[in-house]
Description:
By secondary structure, the protein is of the alpha+beta class. It has a domain at about 10-115: formyl-coa transferase, domain 3 (2-Layer Sandwich), CATH 3.30.1540.10. It is built from 8 helices and 5 strands, in the order ααββαααβααββα. It has helices at about 1-15, 30, 55-60, 85-95, 100-110, 120-125, 125-130, 180-190, and strands at about 40, 45-50, 115, 135-140, 145-150. The strands form 2 sheets. The chain has a 3-stranded antiparallel sheet, covered by helices on one side. Strands 4-5 form a two-stranded antiparallel sheet. Strand 1 (about 40) and strand 2 form a beta hairpin. The protein is flat and about 65 Å long. It starts with a helix and ends in a 9-residue tail after the last helix.
Amino acid sequence: xxxxxxxxxxxxxxxxxxxxxxxxxxxxxxxxxxxxxxxxxxxxxxxxxxxxxxxxxxxxxxxxxxxxxxxxxxxxxxxxxxxxxxxxxxxxxxxxxxxxxxxxxxxxxxxxxxxxxxxxxxxxxxxxxxxxxxxxxxxxxxxxxxxxxxxxxxxxxxxxxxxxxxxxxxxxxxxxxxxxxxxxxxxxxxxxxxxxxxxxx
Length: 201
């Protein structure tokens, strides 16, 4: 898990250390801007990301702010250097219209934008409902349950049965799965040889 998270995060945050010798420090300037956050609209919040130059131009046109295209700070060669000022400008503009109007304008312009969701909102989100993201099942001892669909697929696994209840009969899940035991080492060897992956609980 540690390596997976480092690989995901450092794909962008390796930044100046990508070059050897280093051309600068680690940490992607655009992502580390203190002003990079969901933006308040007239009636809510919206995540807006005019990332590419074409997005920035489309945003300025959709927002009726073509004057910003002439601002020297926000031209392609200097935009990253003035990223905090850019986000502040975005924030001031977004506050002038309601979320629904912004979504209509920005989606029509091809600018990445999405309304901010609360945890409770996710349960009834139309997109998640349409894609079958939430799954429901009847557990043999715990009753009806809900779960988020796994977004990572494995070629082989031994999952598929219901998790055991809170009964004391879980001894068979302990001990042998530990990596330091003979059984645990055998299972790892089985995976290296191409055998089925074993869920460690």
